[in-house]
Design brief:
Keywords: Cell membrane, Membrane, Transmembrane, Transmembrane helix. 82% of the residues lie in helices and 0% in strands. It is mainly alpha-helical. It has one domain. Helix 1 runs antiparallel to helix 12 and helix 3 runs antiparallel to helix 10. The longest helix has 35 residues, at 219-253.
């Protein structure tokens, strides 16, 4: 457990830095754009993860599993070359299709006046897919320093270009400098230009880190990888749809016209960004846990370790929930004034993100045993709940209905994942202890809600005391050696 915690913290500290830099775009863009323009960014960015899952075909998990079983470095290189070759081939074919049908796709998505949005998005997705397996290799080799450095460079390039395009370029063009580079009609399109440049830079920088291995497909190995990974692909499609289709539903089902729907989507997308800390924790945990749990494990060791990991994941998630949910009016100041109206749904968003992380923990048993077909059952069920409850709630409640539908979806996936776990690979989760922390968290949050009408400074002081009570109780109850954990992080970060 200390190894997993150390790796999670190494990825966590560095990922926090990367995400915080990237997060600077949220307060900036919500101030230089109107709600409808930011709605365009939220709309298109909701599509990117969905397509990225299709192009990577579940081969990141497949690479971790087969590299973990490899008998030597030569076999690991062959697994890497084959997985990378498959993803690269599919990505190139995808981008060619985007170029051929660019106008048709733009018209279908409602951006006929801006077809450049589509081909740029296609290029971003293709480049990110091509780099996905090399990034997975860095994680498998525990080269977290290089992994984070590349991510950091990508974010800095993206951030700098966004500030340039929206802050400096209009002024420069007005003075006759670079007038050809500025087109006011591009609007949110400059966000995609910046992202495309960052993705291209990332690809150029990661190629020298591939150890001289070129994409090359071994047909026999490719078949084995696909047998393992294709269920994860189908699951990934449904899972990504679960996470991002709510934004499409807000756009399609909100009454009042397309302009109003885009405004509502802009508010919803901005509020979701405020839940980034919970998402960030889940992401940094996944970065460490996937290669950790998909390596060779004996059955009992896996079950015991997975049970402990689940407990600590929930403890940290509840702490994050309390901190953000109680201080949500302060977090709302990150957003532009026009986007703050929806901040009251932030606790719902945070709970959904926490449940998503629990589903991740419950997925490791079937990934580790190779029974990846169960991933389809879980995410497919979630997708059914997502679509049904969005159709039911969004027309009357708008983005609030979308947030509630996401919570119902994640709850359904947790329930089914747990039932499958109990039947096929019983992990001894400490439900009594977990329930204890959930109950304490609920009571502390309820106490915070009751104090909501107090004077500002007194209210925030009480909120802080409530968060500290939970953290102190968890450290004492679990006998957590904070000093030992810090030493482990320092040792693994070197």
């Amino acid at each position: 457990m200390r190894k997993l915690a150390g790796q999670t913290m190494v990825y966590g500290i560095s990922t926090v830095l990367v995400r915080l830099l990237n997060y600077l775009l949220v307060p900036y863009l919500t101030r230089v754009m109107g709600r409808a323009q930011y709605g365009v960014v939220s709309h298109i960015y909701a599509v990117i993860p969905f397509v990225l899952v299709i192009l990577t075909m579940g081969l990141e998990s497949g690479y971790f599993r087969f590299a973990g079983k490899a008998s030597g470095e030569g076999e690991k290189r062959r697994v890497f070359a084959t997985a990378w070759g498959m993803v690269s081939l599919v990505s190139v074919l995808f981008f060619v299709l985007v170029l051929l049908f660019n106008g048709t796709i733009a018209e279908w998505m409602g951006y006929a006046a801006h077809p450049s949005y589509i081909w740029m998005t296609g290029a971003i997705v293709a480049l990110d897919a091509v780099t996905a397996i090399p990034f997975a290799r860095l994680r498998e080799q525990s080269r977290s320093g290089r992994y984070v450095l590349l991510r950091l460079v990508s974010v800095v390039v993206n951030l700098a270009l966004c500030f340039f395009f929206y802050g400096w370029l209009p002024s420069l063009a007005g003075r006759g400098i670079l007038p050809w580079a500025y087109d006011p009609a591009m609007g949110p399109g400059y966000v995609f230009v910046a992202n495309l440049a960052a993705s291209a830079v990332t690809l150029l920088l990661i190629l020298p880190m591939c150890g001289g291995v070129a994409p090359r497909i071994d047909r026999r190995l490719a078949r084995s990888l696909l047998v393992y990974s294709l269920p994860l692909l189908l699951s990934g499609i449904a899972g990504t749809a679960n996470e991002f289709i709510d934004r499409q539903m807000v756009l399609w089902l909100t009454p009042g016209g397309s302009e109003y729907a885009l405004e509502q989507l802009g508010v919803y997308g901005a509020v979701i960004k405020l839940g980034v800390v919970m998402t960030l924790f889940t992401s940094m945990y996944r970065l460490a846990a996937e290669p950790f749990f998909l390596a060779e494990f004996k059955g009992d060791d896996f079950r015991r370790t997975n049970a402990e990991a689940m407990k600590y994941f929930i403890i940290v998630s509840i702490f994050i929930f309390l901190f953000i949910a109680l201080f949500r009016d302060l977090f709302a100041l990150i957003l532009g004034r026009d986007f703050r109206e929806g901040v009251w749904i932030l606790p719902i968003v945070l709970l959904s993100n926490m449940l998503s992380g629990i589903v991740l923990n419950l997925s490791f048993w079937y990934k580790q045993t190779g029974a990846t077909k169960y991933a389809i059952y879980v995410t497919g069920t979630g997708l059914l709940f997502t679509v049904a409850f969005n159709i039911l709630l969004v027309p009357s409640l708008g983005y609030v209905g979308a947030a509630v539908a996401r919570l119902v979806c994640e709850s359904a996936m947790v329930a089914l994942s747990y039932l499958l776990n109990r039947r096929y690979c019983p992990v001894p989760y400490d439900l009594k202890r977990i329930g204890e922390y959930v109950l304490l968290g609920a009571l502390l949050y309820g106490a915070g809600v009751l104090c909501g009408g107090l004077t500002g400074w007194l209210r925030y002081l009480i909120y802080l005391v409530l968060v500290v009570i939970f953290a102190g109780y968890a450290v004492r109850r679990e006998r957590i050696d904070l000093g030992g954990l810090v030493k482990s992080v320092i040792r693994r970060g070197r």
